[in-house]
Amino acid sequence: MRRHFLVACLSTLLVLPAWAAEVGGVKLDDKISLGGKDLVLNGAGIRTKLVFKVYVASLYLPAKAGDLAGVLASNPRRVQLNLLRDLSADDLAGALVDGIKDTSTPEQAAAVKAQTDQLLSIMKSIGQAKTGDVVTMDFVGGETLVAFNGQPKGKIAGEPLNAALMRIWLADKPVQADLRKAMLGT
Known about the structure:
The protein is 39% helix and 34% strand. By secondary structure, it is α+β, with helices and mostly antiparallel strands.
């Protein structure tokens, strides 16, 4: 009888999702599949602005990486933003564009100006984003694929834009130092 109970308990555990972490009340998957490859959660943290919690940012890679160079060498990769507050499309788009400007050299920012404009247009097409909504930015096959709540919103060709996006969170001087540390798992 105890053996059957133990087997039943273990079987139940096997069908539950594998949560790697809970950050800011958001349960994050331990692994995801992207571009035909399994990716692991590299790290995650909370983006704050002033005193407000804005989103949980998580980074998924084929293998763990502890610095920007290692992340940029990883393909495919995902940054996932789980919103912790309501944001307008302009706020969301503006934050990404400002982040690119703030963490890129003038030459790097100029090189991705056309792609940044595409990103701005895609993000504005989302409209009002609510608490609990999820934005993903996947780099697969040389393109950044943007999705909102699992629905594709657009794609932008070229690695330089994705590298600029990664610098927002992972550069030596990112938008938020403790978020960088959390996403890199260091």
